[in-house]
């Protein structure tokens, strides 16, 4: 999924999604919920997946 697609699915701005991916933004719980829903995951699954990334 592209940043643009994720942004559209989650209702976030693409530049914000880019900032999250680069570690320049810290998402609120609400943002995490929106991203998880857009990806078809729970917040716990989203966080677990993020913890696996070195």
UniProtKB/TrEMBL annotation:
Protein name from the UniProt record: XRE family transcriptional regulator
Region (Disordered): 1-29
Residues annotated as domain HTH cro/C1-type: 1-46
Record has Transcription as a keyword: yes
Keyword annotations of the record: DNA-binding, Transcription, Transcription regulation
Any one cellular-component term (Gene Ontology): cytosol
InterPro entries (alphabetical): Cro/C1-type_HTH (IPR001387), Lambda_DNA-bd_dom_sf (IPR010982), TransReg_Diox_bact_type (IPR050807)
Single GO MF descriptor: DNA binding
Record carries keyword Membrane: no
């Amino acid at each position: 999924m592209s940043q643009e697609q994720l942004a559209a699915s989650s209702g976030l701005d693409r530049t914000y999604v880019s900032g999250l991916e680069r570690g320049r933004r810290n998402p609120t719980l609400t943002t995490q919920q929106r991203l998880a829903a857009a990806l078809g995951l729970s917040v716990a699954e989203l966080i677990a997946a993020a913890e696996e990334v070195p």
